[in-house]
Design brief:
247 residues; mainly alpha; two-stranded antiparallel sheet
């Protein structure tokens, strides 16, 4: 009505100040909790949507400059939700809003167990997405939460610019120390060529059949990967070449 009589229009009518919010929060909030339903420590982890995919650069900048923009992106995801996944080494950096009683949280001692606990998420795709992310983390750069540290995950459809950490639970139900996690990541992820990256399956708890189905390969191939002692690609071609000229 105001516009019809000549009032000026201003502002961004197609947008909003959106905030990542606890999925299971009451429809109208809770005065006792206040704004602690928001979840803004995502720069130190990754966000996964219902399809098991990352969809934003979580470490593009400090959360002050991205939370409203990313809140809208979450609304554009299937089901309008995402899971935030953190490694235990950054748990002390999470904001107080992650420690309230009214929070949806799961923990696990393996990646396979973890993705199975993520409600409404494609577990198989999420597992592959986390493996790919781990492989892309530049562990040669020191992690520093106080600055944009350049510790990136590159070579991905959606890279992460800063604060990237490998997500590698321990085999015995406990978590590795920070040092041993980085050492494992450097040896078995960064050591693999960008086009290979399959030696990680040596540490998967999935069956040969499940892994073969997920990657569309033969079970014998998965067994070979698990039995290998190096992450480096093996030489291909004839063992005793008869010619030095390609034809």
């Amino acid at each position: 009505m105001a516009l019809e009589i000549g009032a000026a229009a201003c502002g961004n009518w197609s947008g909003c100040h959106a905030v990542g919010w606890e999925r299971n929060a009451p429809d109208f909030g809770d005065l006792a909790v206040g704004d602690n339903f928001q979840k803004h420590s995502y720069p130190f982890g990754i966000m996964i949507n219902a399809h098991g995919r990352r969809f934003v650069d979580e470490g593009a900048d400090f959360r002050n400059y991205t939370y409203a923009k990313y809140g809208r992106v979450i609304l554009e995801q299937p089901g309008q939700f995402s899971w935030q996944i953190f490694d235990s080494k950054v748990s002390h950096l999470l904001r107080d809003e992650y420690r309230i009683k009214q929070v949806t949280r799961v923990t696990a001692s393996s990646l396979e167990e973890l993705v199975g606990k993520l409600d409404d998420v494609d577990a198989g795709r999420a597992l592959a997405e986390i493996y790919a992310f781990n492989d892309a983390v530049d562990v040669d750069v020191a992690f520093n939460p106080n600055v944009k540290d350049g510790r990136a995950a590159r070579g991905l459809a959606v890279p992460k610019s800063n604060w990237a950490n490998c997500l590698i639970p321990g085999f015995d139900g406990a978590y590795f120390s920070s040092e041993s996690k980085d050492a494992l990541c450097a040896r078995f992820f960064m050591g693999a060529p960008r086009r290979q990256r399959r030696s990680v399956e040596r540490y998967s708890q999935e069956s040969l059949r499940a892994l073969a189905k997920r990657y569309g390969i033969n079970q014998k191939t998965v067994r070979k990967w698990r039995n290998r002692t190096s992450a480096a690609d093996l030489p291909t071609g004839p063992r005793d070449p008869k010619s030095t000229v390609l034809s």
